[in-house]
Specification:
Blueprint (H helix, E strand, L loop, with lengths): L8 E7 L10 E6 L2 E7 L4 H17 L21
Length: 82
């Protein structure tokens, strides 16, 4: 029998400048079962997307972000959100 853990949740929030570390427009924060992408208030969308993409590449490359699809070689089943 497979031991399944409850699904984790992730969200994005705009955060005031004074609460963000210098030099970062996007910051990943987590605790058990929840992740938060904090995005600096007022930063450009292109800067935020660029930093987020770099962070995702890093997290997945070093094995900190794992996806478990339906099987070892099966792509995810995409659905249109209703």
């Amino acid at each position: 029998m497979i031991d399944r853990q409850p699904a984790a949740h992730a969200r994005v929030e705009i955060v005031p400048n004074d609460l963000m570390p210098d030099g970062l427009n996007v910051l990943w924060l987590e605790r058990d079962g929840e992740g938060l992408w904090a995005v600096r208030e007022g930063c450009s969308l292109m800067d935020a997307m660029s930093e987020l993409n770099m962070a995702l590449v890093y997290l997945s490359t070093v094995g900190l972000w794992l996806q478990r699809w339906g099987g070892p070689c099966e792509p995810p089943q995409l659905r249109i959100a209703a």
